[in-house]
Amino acid sequence: MNRAAILWRVASILVAAGFIAAWQLVANLKLVSPVFLPGPDRAWTALVRGFSSGDLASKLIGTLEHMAYGWLAASIAGIALGALIGSSKLMRAYVAPSLEFLRPLPVSAIIPVAIAMLGLTQGMALFVIAFGAIWPIMLATIHGFAAVEPRLYEVARALQMSRMAVIAKIALPSALPDILAGMRLSLTVALILSVVCEILAGLDGLGHWVLLSARAFRSADLFAGVILLGATGYLTSVAMSVVEQRLLAWQAAAR
Amino acid sequence: MTLARAKPVLLPAAALLAFELWARLSHLQSDSLAPPSAIVVALGAAIGDLSILAATRDTLFAAFVGLAAGGGIGLMLGVAFGISRPLDRLMEVTIEAIRPIPSIALLPIALISLGFGYRMEIVIVAFACVWPMLILTRAAVRSIEPRLMEVSRALRLSPAQRIAKIVIPAALPRIFVAFRLSAGIALIVAVTVEIAINPLGLGAGIMLAQQALRADLMLAYLVWIGVIGYALNILLIAAQRRLFGRAALAGDNT
Question: Could you give the ipTM of this predicted complex?
Answer without folding.
Answer: 0.86
